[in-house]
Amino acid sequence: MTELMPSGKVTAKIFPHPLNAWYAAAWDHEVTSKAPMARTIAGKPMALYRTRDGRPVALADACWHRLAPLSMGKLVGNDEVQCPYHGLRYNSAGRCTAMPAQETVNPSAMVPSYPVVERYRYLWVWPGDITMADPDLIPDMHQMVDPGWAGDGLTIEAPCNYQLILDNLMDLTHEEFVHGSSIGQEELSESEFRTRLEDDGSVTVERWMLDVEPPPFWRKNIRDRFPDFEGRVDRWQIIHYYAPSTICIDVGVARAGTGAPEGDRSQGVNGYVMNTITPETDRTSHYFWAFMRNYRLDSQLITTQLREGVKGVFAEDEAMLAAQQAAIDANPGHEFYSLNIDAGGMWVRRILDRMLQAEGRALAGSAR
Amino acid sequence: MTSSAQPDWCTGRVLATTPVARDVQRITIERPARGRAAPGSHLDVRVPVGDSTDVRSYSIVESDDEGLLLTISVLRVPQSRGGSTFMHSLVPGDALQVTQPLQNFPLRMGAPRYLLLAGGIGITAVAGMARALRGAGADYTLVYVGRSRDRMAYVDELAQLHGERLVLRVDDEGTPLDVAQLVRSVDAHPLRGATELYMCGPIRLMDAVRREWEAAALPPVNLRYETFGSSGWFQPVEFVVSVPQRQVQTTVRTDETVLEALIRAGVDLMYDCRKGECGLCLLDVDAVDGVLDHRDVFLSAAQKNCGRSLSTCVSRVAAPEGSSTRPWVSLMLP
Ligand SMILES: Cc1cc2nc3c(=O)[nH]c(=O)nc-3n(C[C@H](O)[C@H](O)[C@H](O)COP(=O)(O)OP(=O)(O)OC[C@H]3O[C@@H](n4cnc5c(N)ncnc54)[C@H](O)[C@@H]3O)c2cc1C
Ligand code: FES
Ligand code: FES
Ligand SMILES: [Fe+2]
């Protein structure tokens, strides 16, 4: 008989994060060659900066000597950062290049340098085993830079474990309850959905709501494209999860009955909600999001309206996530139980658990 | 990944021991805890030395994916205070105290070109680097130097894995290493400023490479090395050390350091790394009869030539060629 995984295991409330993975550390514009900045990624404090020729660098944010934060230091030469305390200098590889008070440099002196790749308007860092850092593993977020799409986004400093955010995005029935005034509608929890594990290891959750009234957010969007729009729509939400923590959601509405479910979206509007969540600590996360659209590309007004609109919607999620994390911490003896709507989130948990196992950091397989 | 990890001691078990070259024993140790060994990392092992114990480091030549099985290779050292002798006495089933993999010699991925240089037992520190670079499809050459082939561990395995990328230089086969030519080959390459050299071997070899590297004005940070401790230019001999300021005079035995001898004699000295890196144990040389055998990496070549300071945790005094009198050195406290 096949041995089954103990069910208590993947419903861990404080989910550890894989280290052998690319995480978005910052928006491209946040990191400069003027001064280093501090950010903790996957539990590792990092000093982020750019070399004079613009190449991004991520060093451990603690000097080899007495652990002063390099992020408080200054950038010198072509690619170096100087410790703010006693002036040791490190190059972009983390090697100490100068010890001001002596003629030689101790060969052991170095700080870890993390692999960094700039892609899709983010800087991605790899906090784990550097020999495994393959840029091809960065999740596909091409809508962020594709000329066929326009939009913008922001960062939420979310006071919760990163997995709670993944749970939130993998099940959108919460929109009816959390986002009632903007995107929520009853048909969300009533409609059928399909959850599947794809051959490439991603997870898809697909939901169609046919012949429904568009909620306010979508009525505005479809009128941006078809100003005289009236009536009902076919609405879709197709969630794509890429390990460990990126979720791109294909969303939109089209005039009811014009063939959107069969693939003809010409009578509708299409957005992509781009989300990539970076664990900061066990109980805090950097949540990078953007809303991209493929119509009226040249309208900065629409870009700003959508960004501000989604910001308002996501503030409702943030409040719920903060309250949920607080309740989890206040009720240590209580466990999670699952519903059928959790299928997507449960696949995410299983995939993350497998990544942790591969790193020798399997979750404790406790029963409930 | 970081060099500053605290050692985490646990009881390991010897799984297998195999001789892999003259005086070199390959030892596979099973550890109860996982922890992947990155290229360049080593284990610390507790070894009996006299009636107490001390710590010795051994580079990890190979590890399984989960880091439960770690393989090291140990050279039997003639003047051993006990470490390598103990390691050679181990048989399968023996227990020993070991740490998790520790890292002081990390390999940076992503350089356009690498040169790895191993002298003798130093191959243990660079074998894993060569494997990782091969796995990553990097451009690398592994130069492996030894006195004679029967003393060189892993030659066949390395040849099989690295093919043309392995260059063997064997003294008694008439193909000794020409250090100047090796460094010239880096200097002449279009990627001269981006080539990283990682080396581990006897101090004479590494000193020679350092000198040529400096002379060629290649970037100092691209030269990375690990010293396996206190091998010097000369065989250790007994000598006398005195500190006139404290009216102290004592003999430094072959199995102890100046620092240890002076502390034994009651001089309160400052030190930290005890491997010639930090410079805290430096004392000024007042007078010397003999040759200063600088074994540290703290003093620059110019400072060593001028002979004003001595790194007491590693450096020694040797007898000049042909002399039979016992060397001595007089040191000054700061
Ligand atoms: C990071 C690192 C990795 C290492 N990896 C390996 C490895 O993979 N394989 C391996 O075989 N070894 C390795 N070593 C060396 C190893 O740790 C031991 O130093 C070696 O086994 C000798 O130990 P011992 O106790 O037998 O000899 P020791 O008694 O320590 O003698 C070692 C050498 O030091 C000289 N010496 C002895 N006493 C003194 C003194 N008082 N002052 C100065 N010099 C003295 C001796 O003549 C001899 O040449 C490594 C060392 C380091 C630091
Ligand atoms: S703490 Fe950085 S130089 Fe001292
Ligand atoms: S104690 Fe560090 S150089 Fe001697
Ligand atoms: Fe939401």
Automatic annotation (TrEMBL), chain A:
Tell me which InterPro entries the record gives. Cholesterol_7-desaturase (IPR050584), Rieske_2Fe-2S (IPR017941), Rieske_2Fe-2S_sf (IPR036922), VanA_C_cat (IPR044043)
- Residue ranges of the Rieske domain? 22-125
PANTHER family, per the entry: 3-KETOSTEROID-9-ALPHA-MONOOXYGENASE, OXYGENASE COMPONENT, IRON-SULFUR DOMAIN CONTAINING PROTEIN
Please tell me whether the keyword rRNA processing is annotated for this protein.
no
**CDD domains assigned to the protein according to its UniProt record, in alphabetical order:** RHO_alpha_C_DMO-like
Record keywords, A-Z:
2Fe-2S, Iron, Iron-sulfur, Metal-binding, Oxidoreductase
State the protein's name: Rieske (2Fe-2S) protein
Cite the SUPFAM superfamilies for this sequence: Bet v1-like, ISP domain
Q: Any idea which GO molecular function terms this record carries?
A: 2 iron, 2 sulfur cluster binding; metal ion binding; monooxygenase activity; oxidoreductase activity, acting on paired donors, with incorporation or reduction of molecular oxygen
Q: Which species expresses this protein natively?
A: Nocardioides gansuensis
Automatic annotation (TrEMBL), chain B:
Under the heading PROSITE patterns, the entry gives: 2FE2S_FER_1, 2FE2S_FER_2, FAD_FR
Q: Which cofactor does it need?
A: FAD
Checking SUPFAM superfamilies in the record gives:
2Fe-2S ferredoxin-like, Ferredoxin reductase-like, C-terminal NADP-linked domain, Riboflavin synthase domain-like
Instruction: Please provide, alphabetically and separated by semicolons, the GO molecular function terms listed in this UniProt record.
Output: 2 iron, 2 sulfur cluster binding; oxidoreductase activity
Query: Residues in domain FAD-binding FR-type?
Result: 7-108
Q: Where is the 2Fe-2S ferredoxin-type domain?
A: 235-334
Its domain of life reads: Bacteria
InterPro entries per the UniProt record, alphabetical: 2Fe-2S_ferredoxin-like_sf, 2Fe-2S_ferredoxin-type, 2Fe2S_fd_BS, Beta-grasp_dom_sf, FAD-bd_FR_type, FNR_nucleotide-bd, MRET, OxRdtase_FAD/NAD-bd
Entry protein name? Oxidoreductase
Q: Which species is listed as the source?
A: Nocardioides gansuensis
Q: List the top taxonomic levels of the source.
A: Bacteria, Bacillati, Actinomycetota, Actinomycetes, Propionibacteriales
